[in-house]
Automatic annotation (TrEMBL):
One of its GO terms (biological process) is maturation of SSU-rRNA from tricistronic rRNA transcript (SSU-rRNA, 5.8S rRNA, LSU-rRNA). Residues 214-294 form the BING4 C-terminal domain. Keywords: Nucleus, Repeat, WD repeat. It is found in: Nucleus, Nucleolus. It comes from Quercus rubra. This is BING4 C-terminal domain-containing protein. WD repeats lie at residues 135-176. Its main location: nucleus. GO terms for cellular component: 90S preribosome; small-subunit processome. The lineage of its organism: Eukaryota, Viridiplantae, Streptophyta, Embryophyta, Tracheophyta. InterPro entries: BING4_C_dom (IPR012952), WD40/YVTN_repeat-like_dom_sf (IPR015943), WD40_repeat_dom_sf (IPR036322), WD40_rpt (IPR001680), WDR46/Utp7 (IPR040315).
């Protein structure tokens, strides 16, 4: 299989094998291609720069530009994070949910989202072996996934012919739309493109209340099978990848008309591009900063509530207090029978009993609470189907 990438120079590297996915790295100078056996990194002229053999047969690729991490999912369901600036493997995670080819990165917090055949969507970061979020989105396999540029809205499509919009701040469904989609993509202005078969549908939020409705439709030539949709940034163009090649259509209002030259400069020179890459490397974020809520970075950690002490800890603390009290007792010598040994012993016992009192009161309160909880649990009536398993009271 051959593929062609268009930059300032035209080139066509012939790899002679299947290419499953392609993604740009920090800029258009380098891109990664998931080929049949390994993942390869190519330069602007189409020259092979590196071969990543640790990732296996990769199905999908995503690049985290603020962290310089290349995320990939292979056919065995293993999620890998490769630091392309140092060539080091940052994370190797077994998802345990089987093969998947649905993968997207949330641009807001750099969390990787995966769609699985069981209808679940999981979200991952490189420093955790367990998913940050695991949510059941569909009753069938998830076929497509996309994140809104603001990071708070997610669109998913299932094989049961439903498209759902989710609020990631509350993990709730906002809207359910009928229809099937093999690929989804959000534009910079929030338009949602859905592609299936040879048909493209674009949805828009006209009211600004995250209530999407049909905006534009486009039909390809009969027999063309759409495999991928992607909005072009800062332009009103939607790119369509299909079985016969690549096409583009105009979608008015999809791109951001005002660009920030410090973020994306379409007129940058070679010198500016080199300086930009140096600045990106200096400002590279560590993998530990990837989290669901990035606003927590730099905040003060809240103090945890004091855990309840065990019986042994309370007894040990009481004994230590008693020993300290005994060492600190100094009995004054008094006249007229007040310094008798019996008087001194009684006074000593009173001081020790006073030191013991708080610990004994705490033990009594804990015992009363446990008895109260036990009575409440006994009074709870079990359902009829479980009553035969309840412990019967002894006959009087």
């Amino acid at each position: 299989m051959w593929f062609k990438f268009i930059t300032k120079q035209y080139f066509t590297p012939l790899v002679g094998e299947t290419v499953r996915d392609v993604v740009f790295l920090q800029d258009q100078s380098f891109f990664a291609a998931a080929q049949k056996k390994y993942t390869y990194i190519y330069g602007q002229e189409g020259i092979e720069a590196h071969c990543l053999k640790d990732q296996g047969a990769v199905l999908k690729l995503q690049f985290l530009k603020n962290h310089f991490l290349l995320a990939s999912i292979n056919k065995f369901g293993q999620l890998h994070y490769e630091d392309v600036s140092m060539g080091a493997m940052i994370g190797n995670i077994r998802t345990g949910l089987g093969r998947t080819d649905v993968m997207q990165v949330n641009p807001y917090n750099a969390v990787v989202g995966l769609g699985h055949s069981g209808g679940t969507v999981t979200m991952w970061k490189p420093t955790s072996s367990a998913p940050l979020v695991k949510m059941l989105c569909h009753h069938g396999p998830v076929s497509a996934l996309a994140f809104h540029p603001n990071g708070h809205l997610m669109a998913t499509a299932g094989k049961e012919r439903k498209i759902k919009l989710w609020d990631l701040r509350k993990f709730e469904v906002l809207q359910t739309l009928p229809g099937h989609a093999k690929t989804l993509d959000f534009s910079q202005k929030g338009l949602l493109a859905c592609g299936t078969g040879s048909f493209v549908q674009v949805l828009s939020d006209f009211s600004g209340t995250q209530n999407y409705s049909r905006y534009m439709n486009h039909s390809m030539v009969k027999g063309y099978k759409i495999s991928n949709l992607l909005f072009r940034p800062y332009e009103d163009v939607l790119g369509i990848g299909h079985s016969m090649g690549w096409s583009s259509i105009l979608i008015p209002g999809s791109g951001e008309p005002n660009f920030d030259s410090w973020v994306a400069n379409p007129f940058e020179t070679r010198k500016q591009r080199g300086e930009k890459e140096v600045h990106l490397l200096l400002d590279k974020l560590p993998p530990e900063t990837i989290m669901l809520d990035p606003t927590k970075i730099g905040t003060v950690k809240t103090a945890r509530k004091k855990e309840k002490s065990t019986t042994k800890e309370i007894e040990a603390e009481m004994e230590a207090t008693i020993e300290a009290v005994k060492d600190g007792i100094n009995m004054k010598k008094k006249t007229k029978g007040r310094s008798k040994p019996s008087k001194k012993l009684k006074k000593r016992q009173e001081i020790i009993a006073k030191a013991k009192r708080p610990f004994l009161e705490q033990q009594m309160q804990d015992g009363q609470l446990s008895i109260k909880k036990q009575k409440i649990n006994e009074e709870v009536e079990l359902p009829k189907s479980l009553q035969r398993f309840a412990r019967k009271k002894a006959a009087t």
